[in-house]
Amino acid sequence: MTGFTVVDDHFSLDGRPVRLLSGAMHYFRVHEAQWGHRLSMLRALGLNCVETYVPWNLHEPSPGVFRDVGALGRFLDAVHDQGLLAIVRPGPYICAEWENGGLPSWVTGRFGRRVRTRDAGYTAAVERWFGELLGQVVRRQVSAGGPVVMVQVENEYGSYGSDLVHLRELAGLLRRSGVEVPLFTSDGPEDHMLSGGSVPGLLATANFGSGAREAFGVLRRHRPRGPLMCVEFWCGWFEHWGAEPVVRDPAETAGALREVLECGASVNVYMAHGGTNFAGWAGANRAGPLQDGPLAATVTSYDYDAPVDEYGRATPKFWALREVLAGYADGPLPELPPEPVGLGRVVRVALAEGAPLPAVLEALGDPEGGPYGVPPTFEELGVDRGVVRYEVEVPGPRRPYPLGVRGLRDRAVVYVDGVRAGVLTEEDDTLAEPVAGPARVELWVQSLGRVNYGPRLGEPKGVTGGVLHERQYLHGVRARALRLDAFGEPGAVDGRVPFGDVRETGPTGLFRGFFDLADVAGTDHAGLELPGWACGFVWVNGFCLGRYRSVGPQRTLYVPGPVLREGVNEVWVLELEEAGAPFVELGPGAPVRAGAPGVGAG
After folding, report:
1. Active-site position among 51, 60, 232, 577
2. Is 232 a catalytic site residue?
3. Sign of CA dihedral 507, 508, 509, 514
4. The overall pTM is greater than 0.85
5. Active-site annotation holder among 51, 97, 99, 156
6. What is the DSSP string of 448-474?
7. Which domains are seen in the chain, by residue range?
8. How many Cβ atoms sit within 10 Å of the Cβ of residue 258?
9. Is 425 helix (H, G, I), strand (E, B) or coil?
10. What is the DSSP letter of 333?
11. Is the distance from CB of 427 to CB of 371 less than 8 angstroms?
């Protein structure tokens, strides 16, 4: 029987010492039809193992309602088919620059600051989730002939809390559920993180992007014995809307990786292939050293400046890291699979039809709720991703006073008596022009992504305070939600949304266009651009590509080739602020990333 164990200062696989040369690839960020190719790229990079997180919120969107939990098992089977080992990081908190750090919004809405602690209610929710999930892992452990060699307990807990009772409870839950392979924790190489996040009896590992000797020196102060491993070797970094692109020099990255391996350590390259935050699942951060500043929302692309780019292609960083990893391989590295082929031509898709946003809300939205004394948050409405329309009356007669929103998260397009009055944000939360009463006020509020890291984890979205006219709260608020998931229901758009001439749609709404493709066989990907469009979401043949924003830096959305079809294809654009030119363009996608020096993550 094959087994994977910790023996003194090394790992052992079937009785032989082994070094894990792993790379992160998240099954939920890559179209399932492309898993095989991307995994073969990781083998060609020189890796013998793959790591993945598991996002709880993707698989349990509401309490006790589970969605495609088997995707993890299918991915692990694909890993095994490629002859690779696997590391699974099931959380329940994962960070991962993913919405709410992977925690369902109904969990953080219900338990608030009690999440990630020993709280009995939170623990019960985790137990139910793990009871549904862990069979996918247990049946695929290396001792059962599968690829799974290690499982992580929570994630970077020392960056958040110090409830070691909670960590021990999670470890016990994993063991009782049948997980036999080694358990581990991972934290930053700082004393307070390692003391708060590691558990006696479990392997402790470190996360960093450079300075391996110093980082492992800190780890050794806490764990004098045991295998050394960098579970997140940050080879790049993620990007935020409105910020500059982030790149890391390939040669510098390769040198930092070489230092990790020269320490005799195992490694997990984070990310080896980043993929895409489809369907609005990108998370957000708070700026500042205490993660308590302005919201910084993560872009749709999770390219991460990784060696295998978002389009599945080898970059200069791929070749630099492959050269290092080749020195630690058992033999010659595999050849690369065929390079992914992009759409062979540029296709301009006219968006000739549209439906105003209020009409889309009427067709696909939740029933209206209220009147409420105070505006309900997204969590109180049970909304994870989407937009909520709040309506409230300004009593009158009264003279003009400033109108603002206290506790707005994150953006609101405001209408007064049906006329657009401005866009408000958390930092700029008062209309430029005062409002007289009586008046009817609408606020179309969208979340730009829930915080996935730090002390603001789990903060609510929507209007979390109230609507103020002068210093007076306006009560009697009505609310109605338009969820992103509503667009994915069978037949949701056709026959329900009242499309008409795009010229009569207005600046916000759902816009639709069609285009023909003669031959899509062998097409791995395309790129989609929206000239002049401000902020919203795009679907191709019912598949949600994710969010777009005019503030950049991302200009092109990744389109998986498997969602394209021969013959007629359909595009939907949900614009929430200001429509652009009445078309989108599909093409071969962004060019392969250059290897120029830039801003590093380490």
Report:
1. 232
2. yes
3. positive
4. yes
5. 156
6. ---B-SSTTTT---EEEEEEEETTEEP
7. 4-326 (3.20.20.80), 347-355+486-587 (2.60.120.260), 374-475 (2.60.120.260)
8. 17
9. strand
10. P
11. no
